[in-house]
Amino acid sequence: MFDLSNDPGVLFGVWAAKVAGATAGAGVSLIYFLPKSRREAASRFLTGLSCGLVFGGPTGLWLVERLGIGGELSGPEVMLTGSAAASLCAWSVLGVLARVAERYGRRGG
Question: What is the model's pTM?
Answer without folding.
Answer: 0.73
